[in-house]
Amino acid sequence: MNLEIFFTIVIGLVLGSFLNVVIYRLPRGESIWGPFSKCPNCGKTLRWYHNIPFLSYIVLRGKCAYCSEKISIRYPIVELSTTLLLLALYFKIRLLYDIFTFIGFSIFGLTLLAISFIDLSHKEIPDTLSIPLIFVGWIFALTGKNPYTEGLEYAIISSLSGIGLLFFINELYYLFSKRDGIGMGDFKLMGGIGAFLGYKSFFNILFFSALIGLITFLVVVGYMKLVRKQNISEGFLKTEIPFGPFLSLSALIYLFNPKSLL
Ligand SMILES: [Zn+2]
Questions:
Q1: Are 89 and 31 in contact (CB under 8 A)?
Q2: pTM
């Protein structure tokens, strides 16, 4: 048992490092399997010992070994959150269900993490992540190892109704404001969430992601007005807010405790 926890941490750090590559390269159209990582500033290829998850960042004090350019804090944050997510999945899923359930939800959780970080920095959810997520969710349902869905048909119906539901909300919003309120990427993400968690999760997830989205927005506006003394323009109120991280966070909370959001 202790050995399993140790391996979960090691695998978490390694996968976190891989997720960093995905988050950096995918939106830039670069190959994930391509050459070794380079410093984005000086272009020098990093040695393996510059690439040890988390440790290298601390040893190098967050700077490139060659040119001393600051390394984004996102790297250790992604590695840490990947590891914590896997540990949480270990305790919540692995100890209750078998290894395939654990692997299925690990793929789900890690994809949501990558989507969230990409959406945060690029305001875009890559199809190369969201569409495969739907199909993997269907295969997962087909194996009968997913306790949140009742077989393939249920997963497919859930995906389609997830996409349809966001489409409907967007149309409704369009009717009043004459512009789109939800991005296309979010539709497909909701399809993936439906494939893994089933349509019964939608009310909770949508309500909760709207709530934390609103709270985050109010905190940002409050910070700008009260601390920075800036004026909030009407243009700012129409800025695009990445919705992917809120949807993902709500989906994960639902996965760990379906009743908590009620
Ligand atoms: Zn450098």
A1: no
A2: 0.92
153 and 246 share one domain: yes
Alpha carbons 226 and 193: distance in angstroms, whole number: 37
Contact 167, 186 (CB under 8 A): no
List the one residue out of 7, 198, 192, 13 whose CA is nearest residue 90: 7
Calculate how far, in angstroms, residue 158's C-alpha sits from the geometric centre of ligand 1: 46
How remote is the CA of residue 168 from the centroid of ligand 1, in Å? 47
Residue 66 alpha carbon to ligand 1 centre in Å:
5
Tell me which of 96, 116, 137 is where a domain ends. Answer: 96
Region 248-261 average pLDDT: 88
Domain with 28, as residue range(s), is 1-96
Domain annotation covers residue 106: no
Residue-wise pLDDT for 91-133, tens only, equals 999 888 999 999 999 999 999 999 999 999 999 999 999 999 9
Q: Do 89 and 131 belong to one domain?
A: no
**Rounded Cα distance, 217 and 63, in Å:** 32
Same domain for 86 and 139? no
Task: Identify the domain boundary among 96, 117, 146.
Answer: 96
Contact 203, 258 (CB under 8 A): no
Q: How many angstroms is it from 73 CA to the middle of ligand 1?
A: 15
Domain count within the chain: 2
